[in-house]
């Protein structure tokens, strides 16, 4: 074993001893809220294919057709030869969808956050950053890359944000608030109207990650930033969840997008997304405005699941979306429940530290438009049976 590998083995052993060793398992996303793993078809409450678009015939057809027409690879990064007419047309469509002046496509949501944030912070030395405690790891990565200290406010506690804004960074050249419109582990929403008002009153720019809201919430699935038109300076979202594809977008003013085109490392130094990826997103954008029935169905399923969990005495936090946590508490209990559910034919992943705070290990239940009310009731029955009367 090489010297490097022996260090890596020791590090892996530490991860194993902490009970946090993970492995990859081959899984296939199916239609109708199902998933296949290990030769078994299960009800899926773990993926983010909220609207069932990942296997939609229109997306698959356009993705295939664009690959057939334009090839499998884009050949280069965007600023060299990787920009096709399809990239520019799709960016214009996204800008229109988000009611922003301009938009830019990124290879993934992680990459967008990790690229955009350091680019923004580099343009304004001394900028003061205010972030919700539960922002996604990719935003933390971006802030860490920039080497900037952030003022973190308690999750969704806008009184705390206001207090921090009153106290910190008054003499900074600019201030930036970072948050998500729907939080990925809790399924709760930021109060966009109040946030926009606070940002305006304190002369701070607002950056909102709409990874889990895009396609699902807001008029025509345009996200919660659509509730405060023109008041979010920078909106980011992914194509990889409700849009059933891959990649991400950032939307905002023309000057913001022109700047990022010239300064965001994770945009400049990576190969442009290929035609198949663009085709799927283009088809998803055709479908989204007409998916009001699916969005309403998802909302109703969420209400049904939350009511059922409450009946079982399980805390679902402040969830009000298609993401519903069932907070179990101790890590081993959440893991055991998830394993029992899998045995019973329900894929409901346990989320544990460090992804969520210690003592709040949970099942993160993600709903799909393909689920029926009977599917939700079956899940609740299985949770009740697995968790037992002495829970
Ligand atoms: N932001 C949030 C809030 C997310 O939940 C995720 C996905 N886990 C990302 C960004 C990253 O997006 P992607 O999966 O497209 O890299």
Shape type: globular
- Tally of individual domains: 2
CATH fold assignment of the largest domain: Aspartate Aminotransferase, domain 2
> How far from one another are the termini?
47 Å
* Element order: H for helix, E for strand: HEEEHHHEHEHEHEHEEEHHHHEHEEEH
| Unreliable segments of 5+ consecutive residues | none
Family: Belongs to the class-II pyridoxal-phosphate-dependent aminotransferase family. BioF subfamily.
GO biological process, one term: biotin biosynthetic process
Cofactor: pyridoxal 5'-phosphate
Enzyme class: transferase
Task: Please give the structural blueprint.
Layout lengths: L2 H15 L9 E3 L4 E4 L2 E5 L12 H14 L7 H5 L2 H13 L4 E5 L2 H15 L4 E5 L4 H10 L3 E4 L4 H10 L7 E6 L11 H10 L3 E5 L24 E5 L9 E5 L1 H10 L1 H4 L6 H13 L4 H20 L11 E7 L1 H13 L2 E2 L2 E2 L9 E6 L6 H15 L4
Parallel strand pairs: 3-12, 5-6, 5-7, 7-8, 8-9
Antiparallel strand pairs: 1-2, 2-3, 4-10, 9-10, 11-14, 13-14
Helix pairs in contact: 2-11, 4-11, 5-6, 12-14
4'-deoxy-4'-aminopyridoxal-5'-phosphate binds next to helix 5.
Compact description:
The chain is α/β, with parallel strands linked by helices and 391 residues long.
Describe the protein.
This protein has 2 domains: 25-51 and 291-386, Aspartate Aminotransferase, domain 1 (Alpha-Beta Complex); 57-289, 3-Layer(aba) Sandwich (Aspartate Aminotransferase, domain 2), CATH 3.40.640. It is of the alpha/beta class and 391 residues long. Strand 5, helix 6 (137-146) and strand 6 form a beta-alpha-beta unit. Helix 2 (57-70) packs antiparallel against helix 11, helix 4 packs parallel to helix 11 and helix 12 packs parallel to helix 14. The chain has 14 helices and 14 strands. Bound molecules: 4'-deoxy-4'-aminopyridoxal-5'-phosphate (PMP). Pfam families: Aminotran_1_2. Homodimer. It comes from Novosphingobium guangzhouense.
């Amino acid at each position: 074993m090489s010297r490097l590998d022996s260090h890596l083995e020791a590090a892996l052993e530490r991860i194993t001893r902490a009970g946090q060793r993970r492995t990859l398992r081959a899984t296939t996303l199916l239609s109708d809220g199902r998933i296949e793993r290990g030769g078994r078809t299960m009800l899926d409450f773990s993926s983010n294919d909220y609207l069932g678009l990942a296997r939609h015939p229109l997306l698959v057809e356009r993705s295939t057709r664009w690959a057939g027409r334009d090839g499998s690879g884009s050949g280069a990064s965007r600023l060299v030869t990787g920009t096709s007419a399809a990239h520019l047309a799709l960016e214009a469509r996204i800008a229109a969808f988000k009611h922003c002046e301009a938009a830019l496509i990124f290879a993934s949501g992680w990459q967008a956050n990790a690229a955009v944030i350091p680019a923004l912070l580099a343009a304004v030395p001394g900028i003061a950053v205010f972030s919700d405690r539960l922002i996604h790891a990719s935003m933390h990565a971006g802030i860490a890359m920039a080497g900037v200290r952030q003022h973190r406010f308690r999750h969704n506690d806008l009184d705390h944000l206001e207090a921090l804004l009153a106290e910190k960074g008054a003499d900074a050249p600019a201030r930036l608030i970072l948050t998500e419109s729907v939080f990925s582990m809790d399924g709760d929403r930021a109060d966009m109207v109040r946030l926009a008002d606070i940002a305006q009153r304190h002369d701070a720019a607002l950056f909102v990650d709409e990874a889990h809201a895009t396609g699902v919430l807001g008029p025509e699935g345009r996200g919660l930033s659509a509730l405060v038109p023109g008041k979010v300076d920078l909106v980011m979202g992914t194509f990889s969840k409700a849009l059933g594809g891959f990649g991400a977008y950032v939307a905002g003013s023309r000057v913001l997008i022109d700047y990022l085109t010239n300064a965001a490392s994770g945009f400049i130094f990576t190969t442009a997304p290929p035609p198949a990826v663009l085709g799927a997103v283009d088809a998803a954008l055709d479908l989204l405005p007409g998916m009001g029935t699916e969005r309403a169905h998802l909302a109703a399923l969420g209400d049904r699941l939350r009511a059922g969990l409450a009946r079982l005495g399980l805390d679902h936090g402040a969830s009000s979306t298609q993401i519903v946590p069932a907070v179990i508490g101790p890590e081993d209990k959440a893991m055991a429940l998830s394993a029992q559910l899998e045995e019973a034919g329900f894929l409901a992943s346990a989320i544990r530290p460090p992804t969520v705070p210690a003592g709040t290990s949970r099942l993160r239940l993600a709903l799909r438009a393909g689920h029926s009310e009977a599917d939700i009731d079956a899940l609740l029955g299985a949770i009740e049976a697995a968790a037992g009367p002495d829970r």
